[in-house]
Write a structure and sequence with these properties.
With 499 residues, the protein is mostly helical. Helices cover 77% and strands 0% of the residues.
Length: 499
């Protein structure tokens, strides 16, 4: 399915479907973040807030390698359509749900489809465009991701205040249906000629899923629901190590592994994958908790808190598009992710200095720097990975790279959430003491905060700030490590044609 083999109108239609799919998938991650305090408050489960995002990331992480491998073997059209259908069904369940259990189940089903939206979109772009041309399209897709991250919090705030939080999920239906319709009509079907000769890697899939599940649960529960040294958390970590070891042995012996270990023998793949994981840890941690921070500490309503993400996403959109077009011109792109990780480290260092007196203008500037840095490198890392492998396995390589990025996103969300929750409990005791009466720290919502007297509200604001700011400081050494690793990338010019 090379670019010259398809009419231009067909290519544009396919690319439009891919953009919509990526847009709606990333929109769903950010639109919920602003509305989350209201959602969990209405459902009476503030202390289970973490599970809404954890369920979403968990299913996404596990399904990504499946979509990548199956797409390489059996073609991407039918899988892409299946992903849209699952996402639509999950969104409907979330919109209709009246309990936390239904909401978590809906989020999980959403990302059974959502896990394929990004992977298949990136892989289909690799099918259509050679590496040298691919950069600008990947940059545009990165900008689509940035647009959704800008609009998401704003829509989340608007829906929460005026139409109800359930519209955060209803909005997915028309967008998903449009992407599905275009794909059914325009996207050609192409399967591997020897697909029937390949045995599905069942054992590898089970071990991969088990290791991801145990790691995510351990980091989600550790430090919040259970102490880090509790039997539950330690047992999950032990199970993670066991599953990961079994996965390595199974993949080494498998005739057609779901994540071939030989991918990691490629230096650029290994370095880009590790660096992408680290950057996603930082990005997920910031995106997940800053909207609530602005509502609690700065007293903003949900819509205004959404506006505060604009600088970050604006910076990301700007550099993502520019970096993609520059990559298509210069063809030597090692310097982009190196610069990206350096800027991200600086931005996180600045965020670690925030206090309750930090102005919104200062916060906006810090977030712009963070988005500016992320936009330079994230899509380029995928481009470098795809440039290393022939088109026959580009879906598998792309999926493996994104699998570990999702692990990073999940770890970032879980670890920041766990560390923040543990810090908050301590800080609330230090600042507020018995001032909140019978109100549990886990039950605090922006609307409840506004009912408190001024002195108690000031204590809560200080507790929230002092619980979150140190977490940003702990992320800085990780992004510096990513910077050092990327210095060792092998320079390789982007190929003129698909291999």
């Amino acid at each position: 399915m090379e670019m010259h083999a398809l009419p231009r109108k067909t290519i544009l239609a396919i690319f439009a479907a891919l953009m919509i799919s990526m847009f709606v998938g990333s929109l769903d991650q950010t639109i919920v973040s602003t509305a989350l305090p209201t959602i969990v408050g209405e459902l009476g489960a503030v202390n289970h807030m973490l599970w809404i995002t954890t369920a979403y990331f968990l299913t996404s992480t596990i399904t990504m390698p499946l979509y990548g491998k199956l797409g390489d073997l059996y073609g991407r059209k039918h899988l892409f359509c299946l992903a849209q259908v699952l996402f639509i069904i999950g969104s409907t369940i979330c919109a209709l749900g009246n309990s936390m259990a239904w909401l978590i189940a809906g989020r999980a089903i959403q990302d059974l489809g959502g896990g394929g939206q990004m992977i298949l979109a990136q892989s289909i772009v690799a099918d259509i465009f050679p590496p040298r041309e691919r950069g600008k399209y990947m940059g545009i897709m990165g900008a689509s991701f940035g647009v959704s991250m800008v609009i998401g919090p704003l829509l989340g705030g608007f829906f929460t205040e005026y139409l109800g939080w359930r519209w955060c999920f209803w909005i997915n239906l028309p967008l998903g249906i449009i992407a599905l319709g275009i794909a059914l009509v325009a996207l050609p079907h192409r399967a591997h000629p020897d697909a029937t000769a390949h045995a599905f890697d069942t054992a590898g899939t089970i071990c991969m899923s088990g290791s991801a599940l145990c790691l995510i649960l351990a980091t989600s529960l550790g430090g919040s629901t259970y102490p880090w040294d509790s039997p539950v958390v330690m047992g999950l970590l032990f199970a993670f190590v066991a599953f990961a070891g079994a996965f390595a042995m199974v993949e080494y012996r498998a005739s057609d592994p779901i994540i071939p270990l030989r991918l990691f023998c490629n230096r650029n793949f290994a370095l880009c994958t590790a660096a992408g994981l680290i950057i996603m840890v930082a990005m997920a941690g910031v995106i997940s908790y800053l909207p609530t921070y602005f509502q609690i500490v700065d007293g903003l309503d949900a819509t205004a808190a959404g506006y505060m993400t604009l600088p970050m996403m604006g910076g990301m959109m700007l550099t993502s598009v520019v970096a993609g077009f520059v990559a298509s011109k210069v063809r030597s792109v090692k310097w982009m992710p190196v610069l990206s990780s350096a800027i991200v480290s600086v931005a996180l260092g600045l965020l670690a200095t925030i206090t309750v007196d930090t102005s919104l203008w200062q916060m906006g500037f810090m977030l712009f720097i963070l988005g500016f840095g992320i936009g330079i490198g994230q899509q380029i890392l995928v481009l470098i990975v795809q440039n290393e492998f022939p088109i026959a396995i580009v879906g598998t390589a792309t999926a493996a790279n994104n699998f570990f990025r999702e692990i990073g996103g999940t770890l970032g969300d879980s670890l920041v959430g766990s560390l923040f929750s543990a810090n908050l409990t301590t800080k609330m005791g230090e600042y507020a003491g018995g001032m909140l009466g019978n109100v549990d720290a886990n039950s605090l919502t922006p609307s409840l905060i506004r009912t408190l007297d001024e002195s108690t509200r000031a204590c809560v604001r200080h507790a929230y700030n002092d619980a979150l700011a140190p977490v940003f400081a702990w992320l800085v050494p990780l992004t510096i490590l990513a910077f050092i690793m990327l210095l060792f990338l092998r320079k390789r010019r982007l190929a003129e044609t698909n291999q």
